[in-house]
Amino acid sequence: MENQAMVSLLLGLAILAVVDGNSEVDILYSQRLAWTDPNNVLQSWDPTLVNPCTWFHVTCNNDNSVIRVDLGEAGLAGPLIPQLGMLANLQYLELFGNRISGSIPKELGKLSHLVSLDLQQNLLSGPIPSSLGNIESLRYLRLNGNMLTGEIPIEILNLIRTGNLRVMNVSGNYLVGTIRRSEQTGFTVTTIIQDRRASN
């Protein structure tokens, strides 16, 4: 009986190791399944591979971990899945010019190495998650041309003052409020593009 329990335990640990080893594959393949892909640009995203480094539109570092996803103007439609926030080494998420809909997952705020988040010209709605303000490495934030509502979270504006954020484009949405220069430094080195207060 003890041997059977030990075998079950070892089998469970082995399964966990396999799942962990393929976590980036699992995440990106789940995202593929959530999207409609009429142009078959994701055809190479094979879930049976050990890592996604041979997939088209995916770039990895020397440790075979995903650092870029480049799918601009790919004809994709559907939501962003929260699990994208678990791509621990992701630096560039370039998804501009698609038909991506739904909200921006707050879990993207866990992408602590992200340099560029480009979601412009999609069909995203809802508020901009304040969790994006956690990404101190973020330099380029392009959310223009969507259907986002609410105000720009103060946490993101703080990235301008204390972080590396160089470009923030949120024009062409349904955002309200204005950005005011509160200090001489900060905004002077950041390009901020925002619509004036939305009219009712």
TrEMBL record:
Domain of life of the organism encoding this protein: Eukaryota
Gene3D superfamilies: Ribonuclease Inhibitor (3.80.10.10)
One matching Pfam family: LRRNT_2
Signal peptide: 1-21
Chain ranges of the Leucine-rich repeat-containing N-terminal plant-type domain: 22-61
Keywords: Leucine-rich repeat, Repeat, Signal
Protein name in the entry: Leucine-rich repeat protein 1
Source species taxonomy: Eukaryota, Viridiplantae, Streptophyta, Embryophyta, Tracheophyta
